Amino acid sequence: MTTDLGYTCTCCGERHDELPFAYGAPAPAFWNDSLAGTPGNVLEPERCVLGGTHFFLRGRLVLPVLDAGDDFEWGVWVSVSRENFLRAEELWDDPARVSEPPYFGWLATELPGYEPATLNLKTNLHTRPPGERPLVEVEPTGHPLAVEQREGITLVRVQAVAELLRHP
User: Fold this and answer.
1) How far is 120 from 96, CA to CA, in rounded Å?
2) Pairing between strand 72-80 and 135-138?
């Protein structure tokens, strides 16, 4: 998702035509390309299994943007129990999955620009209708990511994220 908001980058001084409002991780932090095609390891667009014992689902961690018409979104991975992973697979195409209680999980994505780190924050994964990624709710603590999810961010913060990712 992007808006038509452009911005002048404080890092390089260039004018960028769009301010992105979404970023995503292609795989859980624990994945590496050498695992591809080996037994017990699967990386799909929405699901991942490592070593046949660690299970991950992809979700949307949404932050309200207080001074814009769009929300900001991190595409993240959450480590869930085997039981919840199998339950999610069982209900993958079932509209009734929206009635599922949230699945407890651990954030399995290291988001840039947060201190302390975001890896292994406690989360709840809320299922959505088929075809929609689950919503990820960070445990309401004092961690900066949890505070941003609870209280929202501003366009200045969205631009800071864009600059951080454009100029790591």
Assistant:
1) 29
2) unpaired
Question: How distant, in Å, are the alpha carbons of 34, 62, 79, 157 from that of 65?
Answer: 38, 9, 27, 9
157 alpha-carbon distance from chain centroid: 17
- Nearest Cα neighbor of 42 from 57, 20, 22, 21 is 57
Residue 2 is which amino acid?
Answer: T
User: pTM (2 decimals)?
Assistant: 0.93
Tell me how far apart the alpha carbons of residues 50 and 29 are, in angstroms, rounded to a whole number: 11
Each residue of 54-84: pLDDT tens digit?
999 999 999 999 999 899 999 999 999 999 9
Q: List CB contacts of 155: < 8 A, sequence separation 6 or more.
A: 5, 19, 65, 67, 68
Q: How many beta carbons lie within 10 A of that of residue 82, not counting itself?
A: 12
Determine the Cα–Cα distance for residues 157 and 40; give it in Å rounded to an integer. Answer: 40
| b/e code 2-27 from CB counts within 10 Å (16+ = b) | eeebebeeeeeeeebeebbbeeebeb
Which DSSP helix (H) or strand (E) runs through 23? strand 22-24
What is the CB neighbour count within 10 angstroms for residue 136?
Answer: 27
Tokens for 53, please give them: 């014992």
How confident is the model over 79-111, as pLDDT tens digits? 999 999 999 999 999 999 999 999 999 999 999
